Here is the input.
Amino acid sequence: MDLQTTIYLVVGASFALYIGIAFWARAGSTSEFYVAGGGVGPRVNGMATAADWMSAASFISMAGLISNMGYGGGLFLMGWTGGYVLLALLLAPYLRKFGKFTVPQFIGDRFYSKTASTVAVVCLLTASITYVIGQMTGVGVAFSRFLGVSSETGIYVGMGIVFVYAVMGGMKGITYTQVAQYIVLIFAYTVPAVFISLHLTGNPIPQLGLGSDLVGTDISLLQKLDQIAIDLGFGQYTTTTAGSTLNMFVYTLSLMIGTAGLPHVIMRFFTVPTVADARSSAGWALVFIAILYTTAPAVAGMAKYNLISTVNTAVATNGDLYAADSSLEVAKKPDWMARWEKTGLLKFEDKNGDGRIQYYNDKTKNADVLAKAEAAGWKGNELTVNADIIVLANPEIALLPNWVIALVAAGGLAAALSTAAGLLLAISSAISHDLVKGVFNPNISEKGELMAGKIAMAVSIVIAGYLGLNPPGFAAGTVALAFGIAASSLFPAIMMGIFSKKMNKEGAIAGMLAGLAITLFYVFAHKGVFFIKGTDFLPLIGGPNPFFGITPEAFGAVGALVNFIVAFTVDKFTKEPPEHIQHLVESVRTPRGAKAVDGAH
Here is the structure.
């Protein structure tokens, strides 16, 4: 069976499974729509949480980022995994005990203010809509390569699939669909890694294979990668960092607290029956997440080695990277490269007209590398590879069986669709439950609220699809920006709501607005939105001179610090919370029995 037919069958079967589950798990009440009736078991919820949390960024982009960045890419592993631990320990059990449907509802009730709830909705929508752009873009990338359609058509198909199981089933349908999606994506991620690890190192366990010797040699895979990277003018793979040490620290911290503040992940802990189950499901989710996250460095390293070996045959033969016969002739260009060129995510430009592919860092300051390249007749790097294709193309580069390539296609789509569904539900519940019911029409019937939720979900899908088709100019770093927004706005408010009984509504509102505003300002300033051409306006904030070398993707931690400072400053000069609110905060932190999830105010 040819590759394209195999992909159609595997992806089609996975879509049929998702839609079948949606029909089986239709939501019939607001409780089932928002929190799956509060009756999901810890293991099932842990698996669904893992799928919800491991987005297209985790499945498609993370290993690619590590592959490009080397050691510095480890900040994504530390930030996202550490953030989940932070969420599981400091937020999830207390929010579950509070017994509400959504994060804005918690903030509104805790800070006894509809204004606080509305500000939280604004922060949630800003973070979630920004994040969902990346998911829809990931759907488009996967469809455009594997189903032979344009990325625009892929986004339309993805919108249709999500519409069926998200609008019909709500959290109940999404939960059980995400369990299926987790199984698909984890097999899709680990099976190719096992094949490739076995081929390169003889070790079937990728986590161990990364540190093992290459087959037939006495040099380890990582040592070989370091050697190749240096010879081609790149930084040493195992020591390269992401900018300054300060930026790497702040970036990791921003990802951590941003993860802990993501509303679509927090909502998952409202679906279990008890506080103990919330803790247990957090533990199970961490186990399920760890399977992918401990595999990612191996996938990154092996993909990097396979890519360079494919382009430069000298890696596996005489070791002379600049020999005349060390680059592949275009006539022998592998099929996978031609297929990915059509997507625009891989580009080959024959700068010296020799019919061969030269892949190296032509911007390096290593004079020896540049001299060797010039002596060999190289006129600059000719191959550009988008980090997003590393995982998806890895099985093709390694010449794995068609069914493995098809499985990866289904896994990439499962990762993007599962997170998109969770984000869309968070957006829908914020609009229908927190705005329509909480602010504009408190007396709306349950049936009316359920209909409002489904309408809000449908509208959200259309908006998400539009933004995926027409991403705004700043959308290059949409996923990192979403984490920064959650880190700077929602995370501090939730933390203060749980652990500071003296924090009042004025402080929380001011803090959220300040954190959100300064983070967005910094991002837009860095993109040049606030610059006047030909001037040095805002030289310390944006453009080529960022604040203390901190990149926009890392600024969420600074925004969170501003949030805390503003909140506590305003709190000192305003009236403390009512006595019953302070008792409420104390009761939430007291380790007693769980309160039933009924969505009541």
About this structure: Residues 3-305+396-589 form a domain with the Sodium/glucose cotransporter fold (CATH 1.20.1730.10).
